[in-house]
Description:
- The strands form four sheets. Strands 6, 7, 8, 9, 10, 11 and 12 form a seven-stranded mixed β-sheet that branches. Strands 2-1-5-4-3 form a five-stranded antiparallel β-sheet. Strands 14-13-15-16-17 form a five-stranded parallel β-sheet, with helices on both faces.
- The chain starts with a helix and ends with a helix.
- The longest helix has 49 residues, at 168-216.
- By secondary structure, it is an alpha/beta fold.
Amino acid sequence: MAASIAGVTPDANAAPLRLRRPPGRGDELDQLVDALNAMRERLRQHAIELGNANARMAAILDNIPDLAWVKDAGGRYVGVNRALAAAKGFSQPGQLIGMNDHDIQPPELARKYLADDAEVMATSGAKRIEEQHINADGTNTLVETIKTALHDADGLVVGTVGIARDITARRQGEADRDARRLAEAANHAKSEFLANMSHEIRTPMNAILGMSYLALQSGLDSQQANYVQKIHGAAESLLGIINDILDFSKIEAGKLDIESVPFCLADVMEGLVGLVSMNTEEKGLELVIVQPPMVPPILIGDPSRLRQVLLNLGYNAVKFTERGEVVIAVEIALRQADSIVLHFDVRDTGIGMTSEEQQRLFQPFTQGDSSTSRRYGGTGLGLSISRHLVRMMGGEIHVESAVGQGSRFHFEMRFGVLPGPDALAVPQASGLHGLRALAVDDNACARDVLVGLTTAFGLHADSAADGRAALRRVEIADATDRPYDLILLDWKMPDLDGVECLQLLCQRGSRHHPVPVVMMVTALGRDELHRRLQERKLTVGALLTKPVTPSTLLDACSRVLGLPVPEVTRASRHEQALIGMQAHLRGARILLVEDNAINREIALALLRRSGIDVGVACDGQEAVSLLEREQFDGVLMDCQMPVMDGYAATRALRQQPRWRDLPVIAMTANALVGDREKVLAAGMNDHVAKPVKVEELFSTLARWIRPAATVVADGITPTADGPIPQSGFDRGAGVAALMGDEATYLRLLGMFRDREADFAGRFRAARQAGHLSLAMRMVHDLKGVSGTLAAGAIYRAASDLERGCIDAVDADQVEILLSKVVTSLDPVIAELRTLEARRAP
């Protein structure tokens, strides 16, 4: 190319031309000839060097990826490199020599290129531009072009030189980086919005949930308790919507974690029943829970996420079902030595879905009914979140549905099991084996569940689909000397309901055998059922609330048949644990730092009711100042406050050696990805989310806070040997229930002695004044505390009394049950008082 630009092609290989002196000349002429020959040789060598340089330059230009060219003043190509030739579809660069832009470019682009050349030559300068280059195959490439004027030896402009570099990838990378920066900014803005929304909504919700919880503990009558319970449930539903949004944000960020901890499936299912049944009761639906008793009692997995998935599916089923039933079933799909695969199935008799609706079902913010006038609420995130959670736990969720025929969601999930021999999830009562039971229910699925459970407990079970069929079965069983010991009788049945069936059963009596014990089963209207039974002067062994779970059925069967029952049920273990944690914290000094007056009032009420001495500060600066003057065992610190927030206050505390080990528990209404890390980075030990859950609050406090001095409460000295009453308490079990904290166990004994000494008088006074819910609370508290202290006789008597109150037995029966409580309670109180009197000076 350089040779073409120069226009000269010297022959460096030609033989050198020698000048010869003409004959007859002198020495001067010889010298001149020699000088001319030397000059000729130097010119030849220069030509060789110039040719080599041009060749090297041509090789360089031909091998660079950039497009390079030289044009004369008329715009004709006088030199091009291979990259330009190839881009325009030519095999050799020489093919373009003599052409101009009109020969190889579209007309509009050719005019632009020639105008740029004219501008460069006119200004005798250079120009850098970004422009589109069209390749031979028709594709466009964005290039950065530098054009300069070409000068001859005299400095005159004789053309242009250009080089163009492909910058398509570079510009795309820059565009991608800009888009990423914009996306990150948008994501940050979204996170900030979610954080602010979370805080702004959770703060008033903390007041609603906290105050309603305290109100429910204050002895409301049944109507008031019903209203407040619905307020509490509605607030929890709203909190669920917020949590769905936050969980979806965590899923998008890839920061949603799955735990692997020991848990009891029956606890998960019973908690599920309590929440879903509120919705089914409002809509008059039948809720059926199917769970096999043979599931190992302890599984290894994430109970909270499993519960979240089942709740989402359960709520979804109830939402789209107007009549019929909702079934939540668990089956064992595979059992191995160290694991078990469970199949979960949630189905309903609701509106169903088309195949198109099923295709988009798991997309975020999508619902089965997406019209502007839709009847069904919700965020449209529940199913999307559920699918993510199931996948994270190793399963896949499936859906089967048809319009008008309901829907079925199901998935399988593997859980670890603890090593050791298999055990039942529900304790067995050996006295039930061989007894005969009759399950009466017009709902086939509910009937099958009752038959399956009673059979699993060792009973021989039959079934009847209505009241009249039940009466016929009882007559046949009586006549053949194979009477039923127990009848599980549904209340709400067509033609002949449970109450009418029971009345006919009592009127007919039995020829050869006593009338079987009847347990009435109902999903709705317990108060109305009580009234109808009292009007007809009918009594039942027990009232069971649907859906019936294995543990509640086993407990009820054992009680009505006079068989031993477990001293501490699963339902009471949570209560016992809470009492134990509260007792552990009794006497501790905690500094509450909270700027919101309502939140302060709730926290103060919860803490002080548990015997905790509470100091108060309204912001971080007040907290630091108060800690300068007073001693505290721990700090419960709000995060977002004026003057000085919780993060800054904690950092200030950690800078002082005396406060480096002071437990600081954060209270935060933020629940986004990274909030826990932010709390820990500030130097806090742990955090409690708002709205505050009572069990979570006290378990977190108990994990970190140790009272500075163990207060010997109520005159009982914690010694290695006692004092412990000689009867009524299982000391080892009681201490074990409190995680080995014997000092706490002894403090509880003193509290129990003083608080429960006049139980019978307080209980009778409350009932006589018409405060039935207050009386119920008294016996419930007695049952819980006696269970924690492992006072088995008192616990059983209190449980019987509580059941009698729930079943609304008549006053004479209540007095009989109360006398059993007194019989077991009074000797223990007397012995505790005697032990204390012996210590008195």
